[in-house]
Write a structure and sequence with these properties.
- There is one protein chain.
- By secondary structure, this protein is α/β, with parallel strands linked by helices.
- Helix content is 29%, strand content 22%.
- The strands form two sheets. An eight-stranded mixed beta sheet has the order 6-7-8-3-9-10-12-11.
- A hairpin with a 4-residue loop joins strand 1 and strand 2.
- Helix 7 runs parallel beside helix 8.
- The two termini are 29 Å apart.
């Protein structure tokens, strides 16, 4: 459970409020999708969970409760035992996460032997098993290949294999399908769905593609400008969205079932997180905004069971 998490970056230009009082709950064996435009704070939220915020960033407030313990109160040594063992992360760009001068199998084996008391020979057997589990054909041969010999989809599968070494309780997937074509995207999502059922992990799936999370997520959180603006079941988000930003995102998704002359667009630009708008951060781009929206900051309100929305005019939309 994430409660009132705030992560800021202290730059020369000012304080960037990348994540500002975000609360989010992920239950056991549940998949939660975190969706929003680039720069809204999704990846920073993920890195905060593992306490991997780079300089000059810092977690300045809130709690990250994992299995009854607050990760923000743990020492760095304790966090090293949590990372990889109990919480694993699939990073956004597999090409930059794999070392180009070592064989893929070597790198997975190194990760295995650093987390599990096992010799390198047995570690290589487990490496091949993991590569087979994530759908890489001829795993014993492909494990001897270098990253440049892998396609984008295969690199991502290798990163997923590495993340599954210790069968973590929570798998954080940060844009795991970025830069992949739609066919490979579907395969990666299907793979994650199958692996989740096999090992029983919870998954936090971060993406800018709202349509991508439909088949895998139980719940979806919508982020905008460092804030969580709506959180509900996947069904509620698609059938009864209540925040204007969520509605705008859905209207911009093409559908084979509905014919429209022009897809919806969101006017304006994503605001600066150094000097975000007063009141509701979405109000400069919102067609429902009033003078009050620019003055008063909305709070998360439960409008129906399990459906949370941060909007002053939610009951009028």
């Amino acid at each position: 459970m994430i409660k009132d998490l705030s992560t800021y970056f202290f730059t020369r230009e000012g304080i960037v409020k990348a994540v500002d009082k975000v609360s989010l709950n992920i239950n056991r064996e549940e998949v939660v999708g975190l969706v929003g435009e680039s720069g809204c704070g999704k990846s920073t939220t993920a890195l905060s969970i593992l306490r991997l915020i780079p300089h000059p960033g810092r977690i300045v407030g809130g709690n990250i409760i994992f299995d009854g313990e607050d990760l923000l109160k743990k020492s760095e040594e304790e966090m090293r035992r949590v990372r990889g063992d109990r919480i694993s992360m699939i990073f956004q760009d597999p090409a930059s996460s794999l070392n180009p001068v070592f064989q893929v199998g070597e790198q997975i084996n190194e990760a295995i032997t650093s987390h599990i008391k096992i010799n390198k020979s047995d570690g290589m057997k487990k490496t091949i098993e993991l590569l087979e589990k994530v759908g890489i054909p001829d795993a014993s041969r492909r494990g001897k290949a270098y990253p440049h010999e892998f396609s984008g989809g295969m690199k991502q599968r290798a990163m997923i294999a590495m993340a599954l070494i210790c069968e973590p309780d929570l798998l954080v997937a940060d844009e795991p399908t970025s830069n992949l074509d739609v066919t490979i995207q579907a395969q990666i999502i299907e793979l994650m769905k199958r692996l989740k059922e096999d090992i029983g992990s919870s998954i936090l799936l971060i993406t800018h593609n709202l349509a991508l999370v439909t088949d895998i997520a139980n719940k979806i959180g919508i982020m905008y400008a460092g804030k969580l603006v709506e959180f509900a079941s996947t069904e509620a988000i698609y059938e009864k969205p209540r925040h204007p930003y969520t509605c705008a995102l859905l209207s911009s998704i093409p559908s084979v079932d509905v014919t429209v002359e022009r897809l919806g667009v969101i006017p304006g630009e994503v605001p600066s997180l150094i000097k975000p708008p007063t009141g509701c951060r979405f109000h400069p781009r919102c067609k429902y905004s009033t003078e009050l929206c620019g003055k008063e900051e909305p709070t998360m309100t439960e409008i129906e069971s399990g459906h949370l929305v941060s909007c002053l005019r939610v009951h009028e939309i």
